[in-house]
């Protein structure tokens, strides 16, 4: 499972989801869906947009959770 770290990065930078929505021209509903894993796919356009707007690397943007870690979290 891949987790987006957008909320954590926004918090570290003192920025809001609304700020990011304005930067990327995305609705808050769709942003929340992407962050919470409610979407099965995210376009490269938005992934690159997250990276640029948050001034971070893709390594910082994602966390890979192994299947056994996922089961423990549930």
How much of the sequence lies in strands comes to 5-15%
Which regions are unreliable across 5 or more consecutive residues at pLDDT < 50?
none
Strand order of the largest sheet: 1-2
Annotation, overall tally of beta strands: 2
Q: What is the element string, with H for helices and E for strands? A: EHHHHHEH
Q: Which structural class is indicated by helix and strand composition? A: mainly alpha
CATH architecture: Orthogonal Bundle
Secondary structure topology:
Layout: E1 2-4, H1 6-13, H2 17-24, H3 28-36, H4 44-53, H5 58-61, E2 62-64, H6 67-73
Would you kindly provide a written description of the structure presented here, covering whatever features stand out?
This protein starts with a strand and ends with a helix. It has 6 helices and 2 strands; from the N terminus they run βαααααβα. It has one domain: 434 Repressor (Amino-terminal Domain). It has 74 residues and is mostly helical. The chain has helices spanning 6-13, 17-24, 28-36, 44-53, 58-61, 67-73; strands at 2-4, 62-64. A two-stranded antiparallel ribbon has the order 1-2.
């Amino acid at each position: 499972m891949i987790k987006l770290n957008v909320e954590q990065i926004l918090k570290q930078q003192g920025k809001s989801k609304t700020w990011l929505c304005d930067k990327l021209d995305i609705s808050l509903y769709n942003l929340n869906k992407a962050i919470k894993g409610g979407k099965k796919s995210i376009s490269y356009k938005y992934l690159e947009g997250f990276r640029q707007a948050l001034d971070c690397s893709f390594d910082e943007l994602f966390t890979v959770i192994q299947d056994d870690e996922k089961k423990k979290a549930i």
